[in-house]
Amino acid sequence: MTPILPPFPHTRLRRMRRTAALRDLAQENRLSVKDLIWPIFVTDVAGADVEVPSLPGVTRYTLEGAVRAAEHAAQLGIPAICLFPYTDPAVKTERCEEAWNPDNITNRVIRAIKAEVPEIAVMTDIALDPYNANGHDGLVRDGIILNDETVDCLVKMALAQADAGADILGPSDMMDGRIGAMRTALEGAGHNDVTILSYAAKFASCFYSPFRDAVGATGALKGDKKTYQMNPGNSDEALRLVARDLAEGADMVMVKPGMPYLDICHRVKERFGVPTYAYQVSGEYAMAMAAVQNGWLDHDKVMLESLMAFRRAGCDGVLTYFAPAAAKLLRES
Ligand code: PBG
After folding, report:
1. Which atom of ligand 1 is nearest to the CA of 137?
2. CA atoms of 83 and 126, how far apart (whole Å)
3. Transmembrane segments in this chain: where (predicted)?
C-alpha cells in the first residue's frame, strides 16, 4: 500500500533523485546477468552460422557454433541457453517423427553442450512446429489441431530431450494436459530432476513472425494458431492456465510475448508467487532493432530499459535475444 503523503513541501520526491548515489539507494528493482535466458537457433542444414535476416545480430548456429555460443554465454555469467531448431524442410512430415528422434539437431546440441559446458543450464522447446510439414504446433487432421494425439508426441519429445541431458523443458505448444502427461512420463523414466518451464500464458500473437522465419516455419504455416494459443483480449484465462500447469507439475511458468503483456506477468507473479519468466519475443526484438538501425532509439538504452520493465512487473527472468549484449553491459557497469 502506498502511504498517504503529508503535504508539500515535506514530501519532495525529487530529493531522492538528486544524485546517482541517492537514486541507487532508492532503486526498487535490479537487473542482473542472472536474470537472462538466451534463446539461440541451431541447424544442421547448409547456410548456418549466418545472421537471420529478420533478426539483426541473431545467428543460426551449427552444432559447433552452438557449443561456442554456450561457452561465451557461460563466460558472461548467463545461467541458461534455450535451443530452437531450424529443420531441413525435407525431414518435415505431417506426423513430425523427427521431433523425438534422439539424434535430431536439438538433441545432439544438448549432448554437445552438456559435455563441453556443463555449468550452463540447457533449456529446450517442446512443440511440433519446427518438424511439422504444415507449420502447426500440433498434429492436424481435417484442419483440426488434435490435442491428445499431439500430447503423446510431446511426451516422446520431452523424454528424448531429457535423455539427451536437458535441464529445463519448455513446452510452448499450448495443448491441454501436456504438463501432467510429461511430468508422469519423466517420473516413470527416472528423470525426476528435470524441470519444466511451462509456456502457460502464450498468446496468439503477431510478434512471432521473425521467429517463424528463423525456424523456417513461415511458408509452411497453414492458417493461424488461434485455436490453441490465447486470445490477446484475455487476462483471467492466463491465471487459470498458470494454476492448471502448476497443479500438473510445472516448476516455472512463462508469459509470452513480453512487453505487450506485462500486466499478465504482474498478475501471475502476484497471484502465485512462483518462478515467473517472460519471453521478449522475436517481434519485440526486431521492432527495437529496426528503430536502432534507423537511428531512432539507442541500442543499449532501449535494451536495458525494456529488460528492467520485466523485473518491475515481477518477472524473475527474461528470455531475450539481447542476452549476450545485455550481459556484457551489465558486467561492465
Ligand atoms: C512455437 C514457438 C514460437 C515461438 C517460440 N516457440 C512461435 C509460434 O508460436 O508460432 C516464438 C518465439 C519468438 O517469437 O521469439 N512453438
Report:
1. 16
2. 10
3. none
- Ligand 1 centroid vs 167 CA: distance in angstroms? 20
* Of 121, 195, 203, 108, nearest in space to 160 by CA: 108
pTM: 0.96
Instruction: Quote the percentage of the chain above a pLDDT of 90.
Output: 89
107 lines ligand 1 (CB under 6 A): no
Per-residue pLDDT band at 128 (split at 50, 70, 90)? very high
Q: What span, in angstroms and rounded, lies between the C-alpha atoms of 210 and 194?
A: 30
Per-residue pLDDT at 205 exceeds 90 = yes
Can you tell me the distance from the alpha carbon of 234 to that of 39, in angstroms, rounded to the nearest whole number?
A: 26
Which domains are seen in the chain, by residue range?
31-332 (3.20.20.70)
Percent of the chain with pLDDT over 70: 99
Best residue among 208, 209, 285 to mutate for probing ligand 1's pocket (most ligand atoms within 8 Å of CB) is 208
The answer to whether 50 touches 59, Cβ cutoff 8 Å, is yes
d(CA 93, CA 96): 5
